[in-house]
């Protein structure tokens, strides 16, 4: 059984060598790919601050969803305690959202 798997592995290895393109190496395929920027020509260009703002907002609202999912189970198990904790979490998140909106962080278009 082991020999059969070894034989199959060797056959696939030989097929990949036979079917692959070899010989011509292009410059673009040898270099690294970093977010669409050429690492050799313009490696000193700064990233946009708005990119980081959008990334932080995404992470905050993603964590919000992660915290809200277990709250559904908590609301089913405890009537008032879970509702108070869920309301407090939602209040803090709405305050953060309103702060971001008023400070102009939502204007990224």
Automatic annotation (TrEMBL):
Q: What is its main location?
A: membrane
Which cellular component appears as one GO term in the record? mitochondrial membrane
Query: Which Pfam family is one of this chain's hits?
Result: Oxidored_q4
> Superkingdom, according to UniProt?
Eukaryota
- This protein's record includes keyword Transport: yes
Q: Which reaction does it catalyse?
A: a ubiquinone + NADH + 5 H(+)(in) = a ubiquinol + NAD(+) + 4 H(+)(out)
What protein is this chain from? NADH-ubiquinone oxidoreductase chain 3
Which organism encodes this protein? Answer: Setaphyes kielensis
The protein's gene is named ND3
